[in-house]
Amino acid sequence: MTPKQLGIDAEEIFFEADDGIRIHAYYLPVPGARRALLFLHGNAGNASQRLPNAAELARLGCSVLLIDYRGYGLSDGRATESGTYADARAGLRYLVDQRGFPENRVTVFGRSLGGAVAVDLAQDRDLAGVILESTFPSIGDVVSSGPGGAWLGALAGRRFDSAAKIGRIRVPLLFFHGDRDEVIRHELGRRLFEMAPLPKAFETIDGAGHNDLTRVGGRRYFERIRAFLDEVAPAS
Q: Angle of helix 113-122 relative to helix 81-97, nearest 10 degrees?
């Protein structure tokens, strides 16, 4: 899908990670915005399929950068754990160096697998905040928790060990998780939350599974994100 097909105002861009891999992304600018959000998507699909969600987030008054990890969408290379981390670093660097957002005005949003990428990126950084949605302590926890581990596919054997890293985050954290998540069980998200340092908050979306959290959460979900953004990176 393309932004034009979806009626979304987004720029299609490319930039390089530290190792020279070319990364594809969409940038959704908000005129006059003084804050930005780096959107790190989950394992299935690619960035184009998250464009409608990114547009909803941009309506909260923040410019949004939605990246494809290497091996996903139109990005070059092959998907690796260390590669996804490098790609997220490159996305943050793009927002700071090319778009002029101070690091402390950037919130990182990680969904599912992207939550583990967000945790890795946020260690010891002076970000505005971190939003973690439907994520897990480690890949091993997902595998051992039941049939939801089947979603891992080629990621099996990799760690994505957020539990070992989350204690190094020094900025506010906001968690979301559906109580009917069939892929990454609600208790796994709650376990990672309990490991996290303060300040932090956990929001359960009643009746939501793994892939319908925004739909089920509806306006309340987006207003909670707006409130978090207004707290950590006020719009004015």
A: 60
